[in-house]
Amino acid sequence: MCRQKICFLILLSLTLCIPLGASAEPIEDYGEAINQAGRQRMLSQRMVKAFAQIGQRILFANPREQLTSAIRLYQKQLNNLKSFARSDKTKRALLHAETGWKRYKNVADGEVDINSAIKLNGLSEELLQGSQKVVEALVQEAGTEKAHIVDISGRQRMLSQRMAKYYLLLSWGVEDSRFHGEFKKAEMEFSQALAELNGSSLNTAEISEVLEKVNKQWRFFQLTKLMDKGKYLPSVVARTTESLLQDMNRVTGMYAKVTVM
């Protein structure tokens, strides 16, 4: 077989391995790379939360579409990051995350029931750790303290969905002695990071305005969440954490722009 034909077949096989609708889009700088890698952490938690919403028929913000969109976005951003990665450490971290993603996606694409939710939650912890390693590798690769603020802000998105995930699993009746502790830990970490962001010297007037909205939503969340004696308000928590997610996503995008690396 001639060399040209062999090369053509190799290129064709590689093209067929790329999922439809998930081809890579160029990432121009480390700020955006860390933004997208940080969003991967959030998606690992959001898909479980959407799963639990579907299971309880809490239809706020169309959880079925949330799940479908999150699956599509995770794959797309994974491709983006693989194209951007420059260091061997980042490439290894992405390969590890991709392996976990394949297992996770098989369950996320399946039937929604409590047993699948329990399995997906376990896989979400592995995927979160794998995605965190990618963020850490990119922050190190960027080699600047400015990368830290994008990381911290992006992590707030994940924590909003992590709190929602555990709350909705508990309200669905998925009892696990660790869930209450993990919820409280995420709650504490969100509060501490929010204080750090409020005091950042990188805050523009626009960033400060959105952060003030986050502060108000956070205070409302503290007042309205209910977890005592088996009583839950899953619809309220789904709404407040969605607002926190959307506002923190905006803030992270703005930090990524003012810290171009």
From TrEMBL:
Q: What is the lineage of its organism?
A: Bacteria, Pseudomonadati, Pseudomonadota, Gammaproteobacteria, Chromatiales
Q: Which residues form the NarX-like N-terminal domain?
A: 31-88, 146-219
**Any idea what this protein is called?**
NarX-like N-terminal domain-containing protein
InterPro entries linked to this entry: NarX-like_N (IPR029095)
Q: Which organism is it from?
A: Candidatus Thiodiazotropha endolucinida
The superkingdom listed in its UniProt entry is Bacteria
Q: Which first-to-last residue range defines the signal peptide?
A: 1-24
This protein's GO CC annotations: membrane
Keyword list (alphabetical) reads: Membrane, Signal, Transmembrane, Transmembrane helix
Compartment annotation: Membrane
Identify the Pfam families for this entry. Answer: PilJ
Q: How does it sit in the membrane?
A: Multi-pass membrane protein
